[in-house]
What we know:
The protein is mainly alpha-helical. 75% of the residues lie in helices and 0% in strands. The mean pLDDT is 93.
Amino acid sequence: MISKSSRQHLRIPFSIFLLPVFVFALSQSRDADYLSIILMFIALHLFVYPASNGFNSFYDKDEKSIGGLKYPPKVDKNLLFTSLMFDLIGLAISIYISIYFAIAILIYGLVSKAYSHPSIRLKKYPIAGLMTVGVFQGGFIYLACIQVFDNLHLSQLTELRYLFPALISSVLLIGSYPMTQIYQHEEDQKRGDISISIKLGIRGTFLFTGIVFLMADLLFGLYFKMIGKINHFFILQAFLIPVLIYFQWWMLKVWRNPEEANFDRTMRLNMLSSVSMILFFLGLYYLNN
């Protein structure tokens, strides 16, 4: 029986913020079948990502707002069991999909535990934490998904047409990750976790995110030009306009009052950017198919 507290700490709706990587891979696939799409979505977004959320919450024991949960309830022992159970279910579904995907999910699960577990806790190191999230929630998941969608041999994943969008996925996560920490400085420091956002400071976090997202946008332009679909880059700019407007508006408010760097503003930016990217990639999927 899953306790109410554990259900909340799994933060299943929060998985939408990682959905753009999955849909990006889907939009670039050539032969994805519907069963694989559905099963991979279920494995990742209903089990694997929530399992990581729960495992992280169990060891963090946050008392203030965390990603997707403004008022986190007190953690109970049921949460660790629940997160491990969700991991196993996600892995079982992944085995049904393919052995390669299952291995990727197993690796992801181990890395996510190293990110949170006190014996290793990559999370407490600013660069290690940033790169762990960027690489494994970004490019690694992109490659794992595209391998299944297009039934690729592992050697094919070293081709530029797969590595380039994987790189973009990682850059997107590297840009967004510090922004998710911007309202958690006090809580992180209390635990001894020195996040990249703490190192950058509040203003520095905004500048870092803006620069990295500009890099990601330029990489999108190079990628779409490389595959002969530069028009997709210009369509992307239209989808990014609301995100850019909100980001600049919020940044100006924070410049005047640092207290504006709070949970509600962060979640709105995350939701706006995620939905914009998801809609864009879904549009590409239907254009390409």
